[in-house]
Task: inverse folding
């Protein structure tokens, strides 16, 4: 089913896209520098960064549509929840530096916040949220 997204939902999607693209570029390009600072494997940083780039393009595109499939918004929300859980799950197998803990927890909180904002934007009527 197609929906007409509220301005709130479009802004939440676009903010997610900007944050994902910025983080993706940082990790993809700077993985070799970040690995020692964060205590995270270079390959993990680079692959996660590269994964974020097409995601950012897709979410940004969704945020500019006058109507979009509701299932696509749900996929973004579920993906953000999964990313948050996987990020925190890294601590089971990795022991990053203090800065690495801060980086992983910080980005997980931001991604979780985007999931919540997108859910709110999806569930509220157009006139309930500017």
Result:
């Amino acid at each position: 089913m197609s929906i007409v997204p509220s301005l709130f939902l479009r802004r939440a999607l676009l903010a997610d896209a900007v944050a994902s693209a910025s983080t993706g570029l940082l990790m993809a390009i700077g993985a070799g520098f970040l690995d020692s600072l964060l205590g995270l494997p270079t390959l993990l940083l680079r692959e996660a960064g590269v994964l974020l780039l097409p995601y950012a393009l897709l979410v940004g595109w969704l945020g500019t549509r006058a109507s979009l499939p509701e299932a696509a918004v749900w996929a973004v929300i579920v993906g953000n929840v999964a990313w948050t859980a996987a990020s925190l799950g890294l601590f089971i197998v990795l022991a990053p530096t203090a800065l690495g803990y801060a980086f992983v927890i910080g980005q997980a909180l931001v991604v979780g916040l985007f999931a919540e904002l997108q859910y709110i934007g999806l569930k509220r009527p157009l006139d309930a949220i500017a």
